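Deliverable D4.2, example record:
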Amino acid sequence: MTALPDLMIEPQVRAALAEDLGRAGDITSLACIPAGTRMTTVIAARREGRIAGLDCARLAFQAVGGCSYEALAFDGQDVPTGALLARIEGDARAILTAERTALNFVQRLSGIATLTRAYVRAVAHTGAAITDTRKTTPGLRALEKMAVRFGGARNHRFGLDDAVLIKDNHVAACGGVGPAVRAARAAVGHLVKVEVEIDRLEQLEEALAEGPDVVMLDNFSLADLRIAVAAARGRAVLEASGGVDLSTVVDIAETGVDVISVGALTHSAPILDVGLDAVA
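Output generated by the structure prediction step:
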């Protein structure tokens, strides 16, 4: 897994810094710290986890200027409690101005990567792949989906424009599963994947008859998931979705579905606690 280029990350980092600086800048550091004061700090993990977002931290410190950033760990790495992730040296005012923005990105994205790792490990004995969803923080989708990849899972579609996903309301508006899939197939090019969501077993054969690439089985019981897997016989990729958490994901994976999409990877991941510590 390679990191996103700085060109894609920097606008979000600068926007976060600007939000924190507000109208007058870091008045605490300006008031308390004499100009020219220098310090050395480290970013440290307060508990074990999988790291993501260090490039965001680097860009935050670079944006304020006056300090250097040395990486001591890398995104996608599993670290123990107490591990040092980066060393930042230079102007004390600059370092403390960027501190919270840098830590917010690392905490948030490492939390996603760590939770994702848990899901991937839970189903490793099966053939099911874990993917994320579009339930992401507005403006941070690319970063959060990057963190999912660092956690070892795959990305679902990034937006409305990179694949057709016919949901229940599309089906209702089109008059049924079959008409919706046929309309989509007729409208998009041969490189565009078509997925259709069904919420009951009776819709499966109608969906499969239209040749979708993927059928999403929304909130199916375990018994119905097994029936769907047997009935589909590989005619389409089967994706299980809805109500997935760490207490249910193993049973879902063991039904034989190909993909399990998990909104919780991004909408409910707790942060990984990291901090900035001054060193002598």
